[in-house]
Each structure stands twice: as C-alpha cells, then as structure tokens.
C-alpha cells in the first residue's frame, strides 16, 4: 500500500512539472526555449512529456479549426465586397506601383550587381593577401639563405635551409615556385658542402705554410716558462724532475657545443707582428683561427657526412705530417735549419692537440699517438743522420739546447719525449768527439807556441797570477827574491786551464737532460779521461816525436808532465765540486791523468836517450882515424873533445830532471858511445890498422873515461859510469901491453884481468894488425935486419890467433 501511494505521489509530481514546462514553452520566446527543453532531457520522463506535448498540440489544432470555422463567412463576405467595388482600382494601383517599383529598382539592381562584383573582388583580394602572407616568410627565408650564401656564412645558411625545408615549405607546397625551391635544396646543400670544404682546404694550406710560425711561438712560450721556473727555483736543473703538463688551452675561447662557430671569418692565420724577445709572447693558439674547421665539422655533421669529413681531414693532415717531417738536405749546416724543422713539427702538433681538445671526435688520442710515433721515429732518424755531419761542438751544443726546448715544448702538450732524451745521450757521445777534436787543435797550438823555458817571474802580481792559474806550491821558490822562475813552462797552466774548460763544456751539455748528479759526474769523468788518454797524450807524443825537437825541449816536457801529473788530484776535486758528488759516497770513475803524463814522460825520456845517441852518432861521423899511421899522438881527437864538451853542457841542463832520469840518460849515452867506438874499431871496412893508430884510439877512450870519472850527473857511485867503457879499456890494454900470456892463461877465470875481452873481438882486431904487419914486411924485405924481428912477431901473432880460434871453438862446442 505504501509503495502504491508513493508511486502515485511521484506520478502526480511529474505531471505537474510537465504542465509547468508546457506553459513556459507556450509563453516563452523561441530564442529562450533551450533551457526549458534541456530540463526535459535532463529528467527521466521525457517519453511521458512527449505524450503530453502531443496531446497539447492536438488540443490547440482543434481550437484553431473552431476559430476558422467561426470567422469563415465574414472572410467570404469581405472578398466579395472587394471584388465588386475596388478590385479594378486596386489592380491598377498594384500595376502602377509595380511599374514604378520596377523602374526605380533597375538602378538598385545595377548597383547591387556592382556591389556583388566588388564583394567578389574584395573576397579574392583578401584570399590573395592571405596566401601571400603565407608565402612571404618562405620567400624571406629563401632570400636570407641567398644572402648568407653570398656572404659565406655557410653554417647559418645551412640552419636557414633546414628551417625552410621542414617548417615553411610544407605550408605552401602546392605552389610551383615551392617545387622549384624544393628541387634546389639538394643543390644548395652540395654547394654549402663544397664551399665549406674549399674553406677547409684553404685553412689546411695556410696552416701548412705557417706551421713554423706557430711552432716558433709555442717554443718561445716554453722557453719563457722554463726561464721563469729557473728564476723561481734558483738552482740548476740537474737531477730535477720533469715539469708537469700545464694547461695549454686557457687562451682558447671557442666552445664547440654552441650552435654556431665562434667566427664567420675564414682567415685561418691571423697576422701577428714578430715579438721581441723581451716582450710578452702571444699564445700559439692566438695565431690561429680554427673557425673554418669548426664550421666544416658542423656542416658535415648536420649533413650526415661527419665520417667523410673526419677521414678527409685526417688523410690530409697525415700528408702534411710527412711533408713536415722531411728535413731539408742542408739542415745540418746551420742552427736555423734545425730550428725551422723543429718549429714546423711543433706547429703541426700544437694545431692537432688543440683540435683534439676542442672538437668531439674529429681526431682522437689514438690518431694523435700514431702521428706522434711516426714523427718521433722520423725526427730521431733525421737528427741522427744530420747531426753526424756536424763537427763544430758549439753547434752541437746549440742543437742539444734546441732539442731540449723542442722536447719540453711538446711535453707541455702531453706528448711523450723520453726517446728524444735517450737520443740526446747518443748526441752526447758525438759532442764529446767534436770536443776532443777541438781540444786536439787547442793543445797542438799550445804545445807548438810554447818556448819550453821556465816561466820567469819579476813581481808578486805575476807570481800570484800564475799560481792562480795552476795549483803549485813551493816554499823554497816563494822565499826566493824576484826575479825568479817557475820550474815549468807556460804550457802547464794553459793545458791545465784548457782541461777545466773542457770539463765545463761537458757540463754544459749535461744541463736540462734530466740526469742525476752521479750520471753527470760519471759522464764528465769518462770524457775527461778520453781527453787525457787520447787527445792530450797524442798531442804530447806528437811533440815528443818531432824531428826537430831538442834535448832542452824534451827535458822541459818531462818537468812539465811531472807537474801536470801532480795536478790531477786538483782536477778530481774540481769535478767533485761542480757535480756535488763525493767519491767516498758514490763509486766514481777515476781520472787517468797520472798514467797519461807518466807515459808522456817515459816517451820523452826515451826520446832523450835516442836524441843523445843520434847526437853522438853525428859526432862520430866526424871521426877520421888514420888506421895506418905510425905516429904516436899525444892528445885526443878533436871530434871527441867536441863530443865530450857537448855532453857536459847537455847534462848540465838535466839539473831539474828527476835524478834517475838524468843518470839513465848519462849511462845510456856513455854505453852508446862505448859501443859506437867499439864498432868503429872493429868495422869490417877497416882491414888493417897499426899499433900507432890503436894508441891514438886509446887516447880518445881515456878522454871518455876522464869524462865518466868527472861525474857529469850526480848520484853515481864511484867508477860506476866508467864501467860503460870497461870493454874498450880491457881490449886496448890487452893489445897495447901485448899481454897475451896473461889473457890466454887466465881466460875463463872470474878474476881474469881481461874478463870483458871476447875472443872473437880480440881475434878480429888481431887479424887487422897481422894484415898490416905482413904488408909492411913485404915492403921492407930489402932490410934483412928487420925481417927477422918481423917474422918472430908474426909467428907470435899467428900462435895467438891459433889459440884464440881454439878458445872460440871450445866455447861454441
């Protein structure tokens, strides 16, 4: 029941709502009926509303029909009335009115037609303007593109082309001029591509021509940095660590990530005036405008041909690298040749290193490393070849400094340069050889120009000057009054100072090679040993072996070498001081100067002995004995007197020589003189001699013995020097005293009076006397009283000769 009541209540409520809506529809303006109808459709009973609406319409139709039926007769009456009275008149008025209206409306129709045409034209113009407004941006962009192409702004032109193709042309693609533009777009891209490549080629060519300028600037920067480091450190770089790489790119202001290159100019190389050495050197990269590379890289990247561009760039740079690494044939002649070669290499790699750090992938580290390995091998090979032609040590030293600067510059940019420093160690050996050649000439000039006389000193100033040049101390000499003399000649301080200069020259080469103090010390000592044992020794030997060398010079050379030998310890200290390496801390190479000077001194001594003997031989060549004379002389031969005088004066010069040297020279001279006199006596060409000639010869030997007894050189024991003539003395005594019985009886006994007489020598001399006696006997055969005495003496000689032959035979058996 309750549900039925509720449904009935809802039905009544809905019916009342529908009635309200119908009343609103009937009373509301048609334009405002929308909200009313919407309320119907928002509800759920629009079906029932439609039924009520149909019922309301049918009711209104019935009312209209009733109303028409009620007024129909009045309408018919009105029509009839109209027909009877006013119909014709009304017709005429209507016709007249129509005619007037037609006449009056004709102009209006014409005006309306004109208006129609104007409206049509206006609509066409408006449509045209709209289309033109749509096309104008396309034309403007195309004009902008042509202007950019004309001004060589290729990267912005490419961007404009992209906007034109993808943004503007699709909006007006149905126009024929747009189709022409579309067809030209590939051609424009190729044109941009070709022009940018042409700019790149110009840039590469300009870079190739100006690599030496770029490299020169980079090396100046490195030199300035090294000078600054040296000023800060205030100490030599020997043993120091290599400099870390510094930021070489702070002066670049190019950002690759930007949408356009930093510059639209294609200059490639900027014009920069040569900087003075004392002015600030511009950055190497300040000389270069890399915008052509960046633009071309951007353009090819946008065009999807980046790989083609990278391959082309790398190929061209490899070709340029090979050209740069080809040294000129005359590079070794001047330092400028090497400098230009290094500048070009540095310039090449400065550019490549900058490209590596300012582009993304145009070149990579592997490519750079490959180029550097090739450059390093070719550069080292070229330096080995050309440096071998260099004979000037100053040029080699300058080359070394240039190579160090070259290596330091490239090391700043991150390139490994250890092989260059290894090669410098090879050049160091060559430098040592050129130094040795140079110092060979220096020593030769010093030795040739020396007067081989003790240095005279006339004042304290001169004395201190010499002592300052050469470490010499002699208390006795210091006490002597002026004038006085140093024992050595001028070549001693000169040679000593030149050895120090050589050591300094070796030290110069070791600078900046990143060597330890021990390595530098060892290098200097080895080079100095070569100087002493090879160069100086050879120079001394050449002087000693000269044909015109005199005994005075040889004596002075012995004295000089003795003092130079004593100075070797000071050279050791000098090397220790400049290298800061103590011999007791590190095992170091010893100097061989002592051996060098000893060898030179021994050679000079031998040369003195030889020279003395040659002088003696020259005097002996003046000997003119009359071996057939019968006169008994009473004085020594003139040549021998002169010879003894020469020997006395010569040995007087030996006062400054070591005692052993003087004694050996004197003993050697006496022995050589005795041997030469013996050979003269026994010479085969002398087939006969008389006892008178033998007596004269005996006088000469006595003169020699007198010289030996006089002690020409101190230090000999009594009669020691006379022993040089003992063979001659015993032989002459045997013949002059004719003491054959004693000789034959005591022969072979240790106490024999004629122990030094050889039977062969005695027999030779006896045969010469025998021949002379036989020849004399034949000439004097008319004197009978002489014949018997001669025969008896001849028989005695024959008997002695026979016994001597027996002694000789028994000795050999």
UniProtKB/TrEMBL annotation:
Location of the Exocyst complex subunit EXOC6/Sec15 C-terminal domain: 419-768
Source taxon at top rank: Eukaryota
Region (Disordered): 251-278
Function: Component of the exocyst complex involved in the docking of exocytic vesicles with fusion sites on the plasma membrane.
Domain Exocyst complex component EXOC6/Sec15 N-terminal residue range list: 52-219
Transmembrane residue ranges: none
GO BP terms in the entry: Golgi to plasma membrane transport; intracellular protein transport; vesicle tethering involved in exocytosis
Name assigned to this protein: Exocyst complex component
Keywords tagged on the record: Exocytosis, Transport
Family: Belongs to the SEC15 family.
A cellular component annotation (GO) from this entry: exocyst
InterPro entries: EXOC6/Sec15, EXOC6/Sec15_C, EXOC6/Sec15_C_dom1, EXOC6_Sec15_N, EXOC6PINT-1/Sec15/Tip20_C_dom2
């Amino acid at each position: 029941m309750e549900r039925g009541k509720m449904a009935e209540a809802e039905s009544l409520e809905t019916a009342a709502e529908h009635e309200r809506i119908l009343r609103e529809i009937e009373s509301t303006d048609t334009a405002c009926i929308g909200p009313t109808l919407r309320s119907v459709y928002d509800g759920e009973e629009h079906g029932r509303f439609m039924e009520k609406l149909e019922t309301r319409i049918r009711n209104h139709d019935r009312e209209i029909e009733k109303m028409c039926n009620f007024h129909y007769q009045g309408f018919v009456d009105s029509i009839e009335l109209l027909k009877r009275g006013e119909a014709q008149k009304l017709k005429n008025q209507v016709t007249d009115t129509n005619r007037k209206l037609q006449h009056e409306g004709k102009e209006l129709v014409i005006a309306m037609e004109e208006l129609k045409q104007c409206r049509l034209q206006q609509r066409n113009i408006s449509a045209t303007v709209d289309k033109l407004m749509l096309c104008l941006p396309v034309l403007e962009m195309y004009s902008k593109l042509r202007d950019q192409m004309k001004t060589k702004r290729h990267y912005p032109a490419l961007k404009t082309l992209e906007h034109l193709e993808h943004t503007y042309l699709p909006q007006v693609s149905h126009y024929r001029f747009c189709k022409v533009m579309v067809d030209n777009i590939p051609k424009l891209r190729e044109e941009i591509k070709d022009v940018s490549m042409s700019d790149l080629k110009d840039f590469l060519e300009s870079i190739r021509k100006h690599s030496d300028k770029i490299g020169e600037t980079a090396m100046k920067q490195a030199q300035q940095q090294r000078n600054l480091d040296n000023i800060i450190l205030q100490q030599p770089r020997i043993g120091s660590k290599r400099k870390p790489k510094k930021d070489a790119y702070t002066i670049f202001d190019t950002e690759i990530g930007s949408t356009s290159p930093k510059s639209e100019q294609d200059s490639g190389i900027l014009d920069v005036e040569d900087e003075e050495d004392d002015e600030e050197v511009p950055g190497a990269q300040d000389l270069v405008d890399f915008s052509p590379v960046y633009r071309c890289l951007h353009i090819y990247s946008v065009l999807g041909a980046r790989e083609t561009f990278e391959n082309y760039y790398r190929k061209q740079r490899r070709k340029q690298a090979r050209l740069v690494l080809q040294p000129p044939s005359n590079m070794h002649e001047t330092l400028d040749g090497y400098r230009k070669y290094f500048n070009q290499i540095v310039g090449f790699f400065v550019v490549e290193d900058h490209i590596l750090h300012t582009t993304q992938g145009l070149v990579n580290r592997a490519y750079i490393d490959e180029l550097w390995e090739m450059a390093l091998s070719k550069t080292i090979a070229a330096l080995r070849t050309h440096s071998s032609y260099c004979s000037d040590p100053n040029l080699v030293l300058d080359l070394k400094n240039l190579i160090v600067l070259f290596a330091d510059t490239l090391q700043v940019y991150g390139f490994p340069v250890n092989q260059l420093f290894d090669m410098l160690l090879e050049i160091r050996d060559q430098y040592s050889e050129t130094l040795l050649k140079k110092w060979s000439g220096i020593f030769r000039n010093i030795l040739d120009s020396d007067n081989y006389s003790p240095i005279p000193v006339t004042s304290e100033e001169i004395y201190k000057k010499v002592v300052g040049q050469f470490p010499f101390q002699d208390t006795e000499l210091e006490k002597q009054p002026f004038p006085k003399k140093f024992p050595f000649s001028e070549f001693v301080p000169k040679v000593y100072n030149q050895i120090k200069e050589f050591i300094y020259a070796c030290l110069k080469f070791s600078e900046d090679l990143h060597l330890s103090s021990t390595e530098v010390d060892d290098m200097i000592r080895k080079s100095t040993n070569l100087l002493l044992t090879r160069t100086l020794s050879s120079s001394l030997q050449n002087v000693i072996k000269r044909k015109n060398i005199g005994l005075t010079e040889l004596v002075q050379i012995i004295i000089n070498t003795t003092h130079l030998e004593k100075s070797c310890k000071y050279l050791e200290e000098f090397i220790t001081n400049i290298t800061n390496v103590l011999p007791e801390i590190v095992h170091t190479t010893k100097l061989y100067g002592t051996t060098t000077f000893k060898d030179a001194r021994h050679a000079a001594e031998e040369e003195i002995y030889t020279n003395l003997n040659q002088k003696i031989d020259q005097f002996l060549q003046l000997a003119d004995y009359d071996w057939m004379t019968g006169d008994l002389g009473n004085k020594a031969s003139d040549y021998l007197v002169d010879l003894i005088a020469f020997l006395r004066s010569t040995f007087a010069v030996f006062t400054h020589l070591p005692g052993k040297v003087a004694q050996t020279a004197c003993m050697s001279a006496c022995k050589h003189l005795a041997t030469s006199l013996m050979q003269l006596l026994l010479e085969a060409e002398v087939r006969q001699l008389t006892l008178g000639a033998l007596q004269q010869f005996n006088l000469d030997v006595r003169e020699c013995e007198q010289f030996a007894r006089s002690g020409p050189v101190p230090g000999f024991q009594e009669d020691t020097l006379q022993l040089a003539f003992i063979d001659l003395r015993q032989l002459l005594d045997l013949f002059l005293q004719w003491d054959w019985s004693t000789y034959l009886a005591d022969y072979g006994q240790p106490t024999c009076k004629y122990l030094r007489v050889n039977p062969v020598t005695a027999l030779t001399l006896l045969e010469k006397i025998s021949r002379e006696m036989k020849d004399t006997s034949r000439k004097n055969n008319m004197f009978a009283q002489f014949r018997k005495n001669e025969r008896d003496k001849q028989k005695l000689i024959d008997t002695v000769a026979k016994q001597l032959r027996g002694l000789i035979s028994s000795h050999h058996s």
